[in-house]
Amino acid sequence: MVKFDILFDKLRFEEKALYNTAIKRGLDVRLVDSRNIIMDTDDLVSSNREFGDVLLQRSISHFRGQFLTYCLELCGYNVINDSKTGEVCGNKLLTSMILKKNNIPTPKSFFSFNADSAFEFIEKVNFDENPVVFKPVIGSWGRGVFPVRNKEIGKIIIEMRQESTSPFSNIFYFQELIHRPPRDIRCIVVGDKLVAAVYRYSSENEWRTNVAKGGKAELLKVTNELEDLAIKAANVVGKGILGIDMMEDNERGLMVHEINNTVEFRGASLATGIDVADMIIEYAKNQRKS
């Protein structure tokens, strides 16, 4: 029997659903709080296998999950998603570059590496024609994401970043503001299969569509174009269990703007009636290394 460990640092709907699904299937599964794990270099050569055959990495903290995955993989454990996928998807700059390099339609993004060059970028932008969005290169749930529709707001954001002690405070990531309907699209790809897709509408007085910000998920009809793009985008970042987020540009059509490594699927499950947790467990069960 395959032994599962579900690694978490905050127990959400998704982790509970995965655990309960595995129990219903009669599988050997544990919930493991990644904050309490202690490892050392002797684990590299130890014959004592503390963890299971398949580990589902569900830690919200990008860095906690990423460094823990590095350690576990070096010790020979099979972690989903793997560290390569997590490294790309957890970094918006890397994601944008890799999508563009692989000819996946994605919004134009701009990067600068200190405040002076960021100010220079802001001075050059024609905001009447080409507004942008500021995003932290690391982060989720729409936190720290701001629409920039004029030079004044852009300069204020840069000044605020200068007050931060974060090592990423001098990495500036701007993305073109897509002219779209008041919604985006969340696709959940498991392996090579699109298992669910929904529209996400923003809540009242909120432009971000994140369900964590009060957004609402609604069923959509999956087209061949949508399915093909979601799977292609997943494949270029490394496969696994991924949330592919798209927007519908009024002129260019579907654009992939972000990919989530520890995708939340409560909204998609409720809107579609699809048991996403069951499909994830079925996929993970088949990833056991021989």
From TrEMBL:
<dbReference type="GO" id="GO:0043774">
    <property type="term" value="F:coenzyme F420-2 alpha-glutamyl ligase activity"/>
</dbReference>
<dbReference type="GO" id="GO:0005737">
    <property type="term" value="C:cytoplasm"/>
</dbReference>
<dbReference type="InterPro" id="IPR013815">
    <property type="entry name" value="ATP_grasp_subdomain_1"/>
</dbReference>
<keyword id="KW-0460">Magnesium</keyword>
<dbReference type="InterPro" id="IPR011870">
    <property type="entry name" value="LysX_arch"/>
</dbReference>
<dbReference type="GO" id="GO:0005524">
    <property type="term" value="F:ATP binding"/>
</dbReference>
<keyword id="KW-0028">Amino-acid biosynthesis</keyword>
<dbReference type="Pfam" id="PF22626">
    <property type="entry name" value="LysX_preATP_grasp"/>
</dbReference>
<dbReference type="GO" id="GO:0009085">
    <property type="term" value="P:lysine biosynthetic process"/>
</dbReference>
<dbReference type="InterPro" id="IPR013651">
    <property type="entry name" value="ATP-grasp_RimK-type"/>
</dbReference>
<keyword id="KW-0436">Ligase</keyword>
<comment type="similarity">
    <text>Belongs to the RimK family. LysX subfamily.</text>
</comment>
<comment type="pathway">
    <text>Amino-acid biosynthesis.</text>
</comment>
<dbReference type="InterPro" id="IPR004666">
    <property type="entry name" value="Rp_bS6_RimK/Lys_biosynth_LsyX"/>
</dbReference>
<dbReference type="InterPro" id="IPR016185">
    <property type="entry name" value="PreATP-grasp_dom_sf"/>
</dbReference>
<dbReference type="InterPro" id="IPR054562">
    <property type="entry name" value="LysX/ArgX_preATP_grasp"/>
</dbReference>
<keyword id="KW-0547">Nucleotide-binding</keyword>
<feature type="domain" description="ATP-grasp">
    <location>
        <begin position="96"/>
        <end position="285"/>
    </location>
</feature>
<dbReference type="InterPro" id="IPR011761">
    <property type="entry name" value="ATP-grasp"/>
</dbReference>
<dbReference type="GO" id="GO:0046872">
    <property type="term" value="F:metal ion binding"/>
</dbReference>
<keyword id="KW-0067">ATP-binding</keyword>
<keyword id="KW-0479">Metal-binding</keyword>
<dbReference type="Pfam" id="PF08443">
    <property type="entry name" value="RimK"/>
</dbReference>
<protein>
    <submittedName>
        <fullName>Alpha-aminoadipate--LysW ligase LysX</fullName>
        <ecNumber>6.3.2.-</ecNumber>
    </submittedName>
</protein>
